Every structure is written in structure tokens, then in C-alpha cells.
User: Fold these one by one.
Assistant:
Number 1:
Amino acid sequence: MKLTIALSKGRIFEETLPLPAAAGITPAEDPESSRKLIIGTNHENVRLVIVRASDVPTYVQYGAADLGIAGRDVLIEHGGTGLYQPLDLNIAKCRMMVATENGFDYDAAVKRGARLKIATKYPKIAREHFAAKGVHVDIIKLYGSMELAPLVGLADAIVDLVSTGGTLRANNLVAVEHIIDISSRLVVNQAALKLKYDSIQPVLEAFASAIPA
Ligand code: PRT
Ligand code: MG
């Protein structure tokens, strides 16, 4: 039975590699330096496909890949249709936060019921967060560099991922609210899990055994 695993080359990549290794899967060439999008492995029946991080759930949903690794942020925005999410891999950890320019009184703005402009790459997470708080917001969808938006008056606040906090600090922004903790998860196509159970189950077990504490 052939297995296709979707991985992304971005910041998850380095922390991802020990997982296939634990399952005895070695890429035939270094995905980091290769420009190939399909990379064979030491197993004749296992191949890797290299996709954009935010596209991993889509490839797995439609069965173009049987398994993949994706951030919880990406999975929430995608919605998770057709995906089984058996393992939190405890890698690429960060926090989804609300941040504003240093000096903006976020708590006061929320208290007086101000309508806030929120710039984010994560409209679903942002909308649900502010709806639960009863705060009215206009969501401004961006594709990157959210940190710029409050500095040039595009938004009052951003919803973005924070790991070291260095990017916020460098741009005179401060985190004002924690939304959720993020890590990467293994996702499996629901139909593939049934049809290819004998091939997928050992991979799941090996990945589970390689999860960092
Ligand atoms: O970058 P590209 O647009 O190609 O794709 P992508 O952003 O979808 O992928 P990638 O590789 O950048 O991120 C993949 C996954 O890594 C995300 O989906 C998260 O689950 C996870 N991850 C973990 C992070 C971070 N930590 C993180 N810090 N993703 C992004 N960041 C960014 C954040 O958006 C901010 O701009 O890093 C900056 C903050 O970092 P600090 O260390 O300065 O706080
Ligand atoms: Mg990125």
C-alpha cells in the first residue's frame, strides 16, 4: 500500500524530521535543499510531498496525501473536515495572542465597548475569540507581517503567533491577551485511515513514540 506524507519546509520542518526518522523513513534527498516537491524515501511505498504549511490540511482532506503535519492554527482555520487528528506532536510550539502598539489601552477600549479593527492571518480564530468576549470587531485579513498594521493605523490590534516575543518587541508592540496555545499535530485522511490501516498504524505508533516531552 502506497503512503504519501505531506510536510512543509517552513519553521516546522526541523522539528518534524525526527518523526519520520523514528518510523524508519529516510528521505532519498534533503528536502531542505532540494527543489523537488515529491521526494522518495528508503521505503519504496512511502513518499513525501512538500507543500505550504497552510495547505497541508487541504492535501490530506482530499486524500492527495494520507498523512501530514500541520499547526493547530492552520487546522482551526481550515476547519478539519475529513481529517482525523490523532496526535499532538508537541513541536513548533507558540501562542496565539492579541497584541497592540505599546501605549494603546486595550482593556479600556474593551471596557467602553469600542469597535476594534483587528488585522490577522487567522480570521476564524480572531472572530471566535472576540465573539466569545462580546467585543465587536472588524477583521482585516492579511497574509503576513501583521505586526506592521497597528504601526501604520491599519488596525487597533493584531491576532498573531508569538514564540520568543522578539518580533513584537522589535516593533514596539505588546501582547495583551492570550487566545490559545499552539503546537503541530499529525493529521490523517479519514478514509485512508480505514483503507490503509495496516500501513498507517505503524507510522502513527512510531510518531507517537518520538514526541518530545
Ligand atoms: O511563512 P509562509 O507564509 O510560507 O507559511 P506559513 O506562515 O504558513 O508557515 P511557517 O513555516 O512560517 O509556519 C508554520 C507553522 O509554524 C505555523 O502554522 C505555526 O503552527 C508554527 N509556528 C510556531 C509559528 C511560530 N511558531 C511563529 N513564531 N508560525 C509563525 N510564527 C511567526 C509569527 O507569525 C510572528 O511573525 O513568527 C513571528 C513571531 O516570532 P517571535 O519568536 O518573534 O515571537
Ligand atoms: Mg510564516
Number 2:
Amino acid sequence: MSNKTGKLVILSAPSGSGKTTIMKRILHDLPQLEFSISATSRAPRGEEKHGTDYYFFSKDEFRKAIEQDMFAEWEEVYSGTYYGTLKSEMERIWSSGKSIIFDIDVKGGINLKNIFGKQALSIFIMPPSIEELEKRLVGRGTDSAEAIACRISKATVEIEDAKNFDVIVVNDNLEVAVNQVEKAIKDFLV
Ligand code: 5GP
């Protein structure tokens, strides 16, 4: 990529760990960061908009973009559904003078860290326990029992990868977790 000088912050977590809430707080509190809008082959949900939440690609468009080497990283996060970070998106943010923050899955987070090394800070948001995670997913009321079981088994595998991240923050108490994440980012960006 043409600009190797920019910094990036990677936020990864098992589903239900509170990552989205923490991300919103960070984007509000740290204006020097801009959210990297990923490309995906899944359909928009609810109010999601192309170019705001994701760049929505058809499967064919996504595969063409892979062939044309347009992604810094990409993953088939769920079977048949692709997600990826466009190099052009990273360059757009860096050229505006900001650092980039990513919300990507655990594998993608590790891949980006391996590519960008010291340019990147990788943060893993850890649920307090699998039992608590299950309670939150049930409480959220958005998933079927099968979907919850699937997310729990994925989370168990993902937690084993936490050791590959620069920083692990346990989200037991939201305020404490936000403070810890923001402190780690501020120290990294100076
Ligand atoms: P959702 O479909 O719920 O928006 O996202 C599903 C998963 O895909 C989440 O874990 C999210 O972090 C991950 N994801 C979103 N964008 C990317 C990306 O660009 N690359 C990778 N590897 N994962 C992504």
C-alpha cells in the first residue's frame, strides 16, 4: 500500500462481548480516529446504508475485488458470506490525516496485526465468562437457540486466540472497559 506511515487500531471480540457499544464510545471520545467501512457480500440489515455501515457488494463483485487485489484482508466470516477491508478505504482515512479503527472478526484482526506490525494496536474485548456471554445473548433476544449455541461455540474458539492480541480488556463493567480501551489507544497514538 502506498501509505505505510498511518496508524491503525483493531477491535475484535466474540459476538455479545459489548464491542459495538465500546466502539461507539471510542468514536465519540477520540475524533482522531475514523471507522473503517468494510465491504461485505451480505445484504443490508434494517437501516444499514451502503457507504456508511458497509460497502455492500454482490458475491461476484466481491470475488472480482479479491482477484484485483483490492483488499488488505478478507475473510469468509460466515459460510458463503465475505467481509473485507478495502485498501482504498484505508488510504482514504490516512490521507485525511486520521488513524483508522477497525471492527473485524478475530481472524481478520490477527491477519491485520501480522501485516502492519508496530503500525497497528490490536485489542481483544473479552467477555467475563462464557456463562455471562450466553446470558447476554439470550437477553438480547435477537437470536434463536441454535444461533446462540453457534455463537457460543465460535466464541470459545475465538477466546483461545486472545493471546495473539496486544491488549486484552475484560468487559465486566462497561465504564471500566471503555476507560481501559481508550487509555491503551491514547498511549499508542502519541
Ligand atoms: P455483521 O454481519 O454482524 O455486521 O458482522 C459479522 C462479523 O464480521 C463481525 O465479527 C465483524 O467484526 C466482522 N467483520 C466486519 N467487517 C469485517 C472485515 O472487513 N474483515 C473481517 N475479517 N471481518 C469483518
Number 3:
Amino acid sequence: MAKKHILIVPGDGIGQEVTAVGKKVLDKIAVRFNHEFTYDEALIGHVAIEATGDPLPAESLEKMRNSDAVLFGAVGHPKYDNDPSAKVRPEQGLLKMRKELGLYANLRPIKLFDELLGASSIKPEILKGADILFFRELTGDIYFGEKGRKNNGDTAYDVAEYSRYEVQRIGRKAFEAARTRRKKLVSVDKANVLESSRLWREEIQKLALEYPDIEVEYQFVDATAMILIKEPTRFDVVVTANLFGDILTDEASQIAGSMGMLASASIGDGTGVYEPIHGSAHDITGKGLANPMASVLSAALLLDISFGMKEESEAIISAIDQVLKKGFRTRDIADKTTDPSMILGTDAIGEEILKLL
Ligand code: IPM
Ligand code: MN
């Protein structure tokens, strides 16, 4: 029996609906495996701006630091998307959280549940067996480099910057993970053009000497974008910079059928943060249509990585597998062959998962 304190940070849009299901699943696990989980909630993003004027209030950050793990939803609001001049933005809360908590490694597992082979727009025979683990660097690169305007505001710039140390620590995590998997690592950069990528490649090459058992392939990001669709089974572990990782994992989500199925773990120096890779999806917010499985799978990652609860984590993944085998779907993963009565909303599919736990 373990005692753990979990912070629920739903954020914006469907973040609220999906983390509610994720929390219920954690609760169920606590009962079944005789753990004691306590919870608190904190604000981030648009909801935090509305309440306090700050996308990441000091109180939220303090609660994050004082918890054993964070289950996070999403941030964003359409109000800001077409207003480039907005000085305060929901996303700043997310970026500040990552930086402040030292969450330099973002793990995004792309795993296709067998039942969903038909839900992807990629042909099943290309997809079958695809199982990729992305390591996206999360606290450096063009996201956090110097940015600004010059020439009276008529020119804008964002600097992409990496130190050797930043590349080494994410690289090491990726090599270690490859050791526990199929021992293949693809490092993605743009070393034919970018100086920061050349340093990235130098450091990965140095690390490769320490891991002679791992087969390393170096790819340019444009080629990776193509190979992901052409031959997704070629990848095992992928390690890449912040911006490339952001873009490639949205693309790779289509291998798993839907963004609604993909969880991620952000880890580093302190508290780990677990969240779906999808966004706040204001177009479907409040309609009960969102797929909560990415949040539920994020809860599974949380148990596995932050608490070392492998069995508990696998129980969740197996419950999702069974729900899919029974034929239940949310709208995003249904296809032409799905019986409309099997297409459930957020809470109803959550209940099916809970039943199996
Ligand atoms: C993600 C998101 C964020 C990012 C946005 C919301 C700032 O797209 O977590 O992938 O770009 O990192
Ligand atoms: Mn993204």
C-alpha cells in the first residue's frame, strides 16, 4: 500500500471533461490495489487568466511542486488564436510549468491498439506492428530561446538554442529506454542546415559510443516526416528537439488512429506531469463528446513512471483494450463499420473502463 498526493490540473476546454475521467480511474485503482491517493486541484491556462490574470498562478506552481505527480488536461482558448497581439496567453502557463518544474523530457508513446487498425487513415498493412516511443526535448530550442522584434517591429525572430548538457540529458534517457525495447534509436535533427542541430548530432554521436548495443540512425526531420507515414514500423525510440518533436508527434498520432488515444509523460528534475497530447478542442467542449482515453492512459503512465506501479498501469491499459475489443468507441475512433449504438460519449465510455477495472 502506498500513500500518494496527486494534483489534478484540468486547464481549458475538454481538459476538464477528460481529466475527470482520468481521476475516477485513479480512484478505482487506489481501491483495487489498496493504495491511498489524495487529490487537490489547481488552475492553469485560460481559466487561470480569467480567475487571477496569470496563466500559471504562484499557488498552482506551489501545489505542483508539493505533489507526487500531476494529471494535466490541456490549455488554450480560441480567443487568443487569432489575436497575435495578446500579451497574456494560456500557453504561457504550460511553458512556464515545464520550465519551472524542469520537465525536459517529454515521452510520447505511439501505440496502436489492434482494434483500431481501421481507424487510421493509413493502410492497415503499413501500420500493423507500429510501436514508437518519442523523446521530445521540452525545455529548450526555439520555444525558449531569445525572441523579439527589431527594425521598428517589422522584423521578428526566435532563437533556437541548445547546450551540450541539454542534449546529453535527453539523449541519455532515450538510449536507456531503447535498451529496454528493441534497441533501435533514431535521432532527428536538421544538421544539414542548423548549427543547433549540428551540436545535437555531435552529442548523440558521443553518447552512441557509450551504448554500443543500440543501433542508431540519424535522420533529417523532413525525411522523418515522410518515413513516419511510409514505414512507421521502422521506428522504435525517436529522440528529437522541442519543435520537431511537437510537429512529428501530432503527425505520428495518426498512426494510433486519433490524438484522442495518446498520452504523454513530462519528466525531469522533480514532479512529473502527465497529459494527453491533444489540445483543449473548444469546438467540442461541453458536449460530452471528447475521448477520455488519452487522459486515462496518462493516468496509467503516471502510475508506471512516477509511482513505479507497473501492475496498476497495465490494468488500465488492459481495461482500455477490452473496452475496444467489446466494440465501444468514441466518435473520433469510430469508422464506417462501427455500429452507431456503440459510439459513446466521454462519461459513458469512462464508465465502461471503470467497470472493467
Ligand atoms: C503540446 C502543445 C503545446 C506545445 C502548446 C499548447 C504550447 O502543442 O504540448 O504539444 O507546443 O508544446
Ligand atoms: Mn503539440
